[in-house]
Each structure stands twice: as structure tokens, then as C-alpha cells.
Amino acid sequence: MTGQIPLIGEKFPEMEVVTTRGKLKLPDHFSGKWFVLFSHPADFTPVCTSEFVAFSKRYEDFKKLNTELIGLSVDSTWSHIKWAEWIKEKFGVEVPFPIIADPRGHVADKLGLLHASSATHTVRAVFIVDPKGVIRAILYYPAELGRNMDEILRMVKGLQVSDKYGVALPANWPNNELIGERAIIPPASTVEEAASRLKEYECFDWWFCHKEIPHEDAEAARKFLERVSKPSK
Ligand code: BEZ
């Protein structure tokens, strides 16, 4: 790996990438939209195939959140195209988003995706990037476990709600064990603020106060989550 890998809160590194839909400039190509860049170890492998089917089937859900998808591996464009054709023929699922071809590993290197456990293949990673091109979340998964689409959708929705209302969101939101679909007020930074929190909000203590957010925002996230128990055919 050469140089510093990008971190949460930093701008997504500017680069031109070769994809199954032509050359694209990142992050500018997605300016004004959220995007999820996800890397996979290799085309024509079973877990990755299951993930491509899953991401493709949830593409419309991502679009409803003003979010685009883009895949990445060290395979070539022709390999990606042939694999996508095979997925369509075998499972009737069209891959509707571009896939970056990175046979020399330049993009993978810039993004820190060549880990020790699989140095010649991209690790299974997810970057969630906001409309200003800022990296808001990075996830890494092992080769032997496929990603959960509902969690990635929950993260995009959660980050959007967090930005909209200036709040944080608890574990398992919108079905949290302590405060349900309510949101957490950011920490107080002065003694005065700490005291006023207790008068203004419902609190377990001044450092753990919470408030209601519009039900429809929580409901949208809940609907995505409910699909876990009812996967689309
Ligand atoms: C898979 O997608 O099935 C896979 C890819 C790399 C290593 C192990 C499994």
C-alpha cells in the first residue's frame, strides 16, 4: 500500500476510473448524490455473486435515498461484463450500476483495499460518501461473509436523518431498546448547556438526552429493515 488511506470525514480521493459504463471521475460524477462504493474480492465467486444479486435487487431502494451504487474489483472490464451477463442469464437479474475495473490495483491501492489477508484481491469494503464527496462511513467484511443490504440502507438513511436534524441515532435505530425511534441530542459542551438540557429534553442524564423526530423518517428506515424477514424473490 502506498500513501495514506482515506478516512471517515475526509474527501473521497479524486480519481478517474474505468468502469463497465465508461470512464468516470470520482467523486464528481456523483456530485449532489450520495454514493456507495463497494469492493469485492473477485468476479465469478459465489459470495460476491450473491452480493451482486442483492445489491442489484435493492438498487431502487438506494435510488429512493438519492444514492447511487458503484462496484470495484481488480478484475478486467470484460470479466465484469461477462459475469454480469452470467448473472442475468442464470438469475434474471440485471446489474444496473457501473463496476470499476482495476486490474493493476491502482484504485484499490489508493483506497486501502489490498489487505494482508488477500493482498492480490480487493477486500470486501463499503464506502458511504455524501453529496459533498465526504466519506461518511467505511466498512470492511471478511471474504467468507457477504454484506447485509438492509444495514447499508439503514446507514445511508441514518446518516441522512442525522444531517437533517443534527442528531445522533442509537443502536438498532429505528428500533432501539431504550428510546425506540427517538434521536439522541449531541453532547453538551458547557456547564450551562448541560443544565439546560435537563429542562429542554427527556433525559436519562444531561449527557444522554433524546427527542422525537418526524415519524416518517424513522418509518422509512423501519420498512427497509422489515424486508430482512421478507426478502424479495
Ligand atoms: C466468494 O465470493 O465466494 C469468495 C471470494 C474470495 C474468497 C472467498 C470467497
Largest sheet composition: 5 strands, mixed
| SSE order | EEEHHEHEHEEHEHEEH
Strand order of the largest sheet: 5-4-3-6-7
Helical residue percent band? 25-40%
According to CATH, what is the topology of the largest domain? Glutaredoxin
Radius of gyration: 20 Å
Q: Per CATH, which architecture of the largest domain?
A: 3-Layer(aba) Sandwich
Name of the CATH class of the largest domain: Alpha Beta
Low-confidence runs of at least 5 consecutive residues: none
Number of strands: 10
Mean pLDDT equals: 93
Structural classification: alpha+beta
Bound molecules: benzoic acid
Please state the overall shape, judged from the principal axes of the Cα atoms: elongated
State the end-to-end distance: 40 Å
Say what oligomer this is: single chain
Q: In words, what does this structure look like?
A:
The protein is an alpha+beta fold and 233 residues long. It has 2 domains: 15-146, Glutaredoxin (3-Layer(aba) Sandwich), CATH 3.40.30.10; 159-228, Antioxidant, Horf6, Chain A, domain2 (Antioxidant, Horf6, Chain A, domain 2), CATH 3.30.1020.10. It contains 7 helices and 10 strands. The protein has helices at 46-57, 59-64, 77-91, 106-111, 149-165, 191-200, 215-226, and strands at 15-19, 22-26, 34-39, 67-73, 99-101, 124-129, 135-141, 183-184, 202-205, 208-211. The longest helix is centred in the C-terminal third of the chain and has 17 residues, at 149-165. The N and C termini lie far apart (40 Å). Bound molecules: benzoic acid (BEZ).
Task: Name a few traits of the molecule.
233 residues, 2 domains, 5-stranded mixed sheet, 10 strands, 33% helix, elongated
